[in-house]
Every structure is written in C-alpha cells, then in structure tokens.
Write a structure and sequence with these properties.
Elements (H helix, E strand, L loop, with lengths): L1 H4 L14 E2 H14 L4 H17 L3 E4 L4 E4 L13 E16 L2 E14 L5 E2 L6 E2 L3 E3 L3 H4 L13 H6 L9
Antiparallel strand pairs: 1-3, 2-3, 4-5, 4-8, 6-7
Organism: Spumella elongata
Protein name: Zinc-binding domain-containing protein
C-alpha cells in the first residue's frame, strides 16, 4: 500500500484510479535484491509471494492479467474505530520550486496533520483540491494530548464538514 502511494505518478486526489505496473514492482525488488545481496531464487520466491498476497488481500486491486496493481481504499488507515491518526498529504496539482546545492528542484506541495481519519480528505490550501493522505500512522503518546487545534482548519477537513462541527470535539 505504501509503495503504491509513494509513486511519483500517484494522485492523492483520486487514489483509487492509479495503477502501478507490476513490472515496476519487480524491477524495484530486483534493485533491493542486489543492494542486499539476496540470491535470485530468494527474490523470485518473494515476488511470487508478493503477487499472491496482493491478489488475496482486500487492500489491493490486481488487474490487467496481473500486470497492474492499485489500492482499494481512499486512505492507508483502515480500522473499524474512528480514532484520529497522523497523516501526510501531497497535492498532485500544486508544485513548489526551490534551489538545493545550486540545482533547481521541484516537487508537489506537501503538508502533515495530526487530525487525519479513515477515508477522509483535506483540501489543499493553494488550489482547493481534495487530497487524501498518502501515509498515515498512529499518533504517538506525546502527540495525543498535544493541543494543535488552532492549526486545524475545520473548513478544509472533510470530517469536520460531515460532522458540521470541529472533528476534535468528537474525540474519545
């Protein structure tokens, strides 16, 4: 899931539409194999198991005769509870530019938020595109009680919009 969402062409605004070529996964596995000096037999076994795992797992959609793989959920976090998690967002429309060691660099605009939820988006501050997190993780104990409510923009949070109140008022 994380590998697919980390691909350059992955669009956080439409996470279910992106399909990653299985050949790219195999190529990256081969690079991994070489960097850790694994034998070819070990790696072929792992790739076969990886494809089998993705076909059996509900988090992945394998299509095109096992040629393409996509995700089946809007967000990485898929739990039955409604607790908040830490999410990283990347707008696929807004590009930022900077100079690093005399080289021009560019990448998509990114932000993080401690008010991220299952299948909920946040709106980009620059272009108003609805963006789903590409990674999510459980909050650390130090972050659970950290009061960053002033930083949480309730007008850009889909959960706040659905609840018609700030989402942090509904925390357990």
């Amino acid at each position: 899931d994380g590998y697919i969402r980390s691909q350059k062409k992955f669009c956080s605004a439409a996470p279910l539409k992106y399909k990653c070529p299985v050949s790219k996964i195999i190529t990256d596995c081969e690079k991994f194999r070489k960097s850790y000096n694994l034998t070819v037999h070990e790696e072929v076994f792992k790739v076969h198991n990886l494809l089998h795992f993705m076909e059996k797992n509900t988090r992945f959609a394998v299509s095109g005769g096992r040629q393409m793989v996509g995700v089946t959920h809007l967000t990485p976090f898929q739990s039955s509870d409604t607790r908040r998690v830490f999410g990283n967002f990347k707008c696929s429309k807004c590009v930022k530019y900077w100079m690093e060691n005399g080289v021009n660099k560019s990448d998509f605009r990114e932000w993080s938020n401690a008010y991220s939820y299952k299948d909920c988006y946040q709106t980009c501050y620059q272009c108003d595109l609805k963006v789903y997190p590409y990674t999510q993780r459980a909050l650390k104990k130090t972050e659970l009680h950290f009061d960053d409510r002033a930083k949480h923009d309730v007008n850009r949070c889909s959960r706040c919009e659905a609840l018609h109140k700030p989402c942090y008022e509904f925390e357990v």
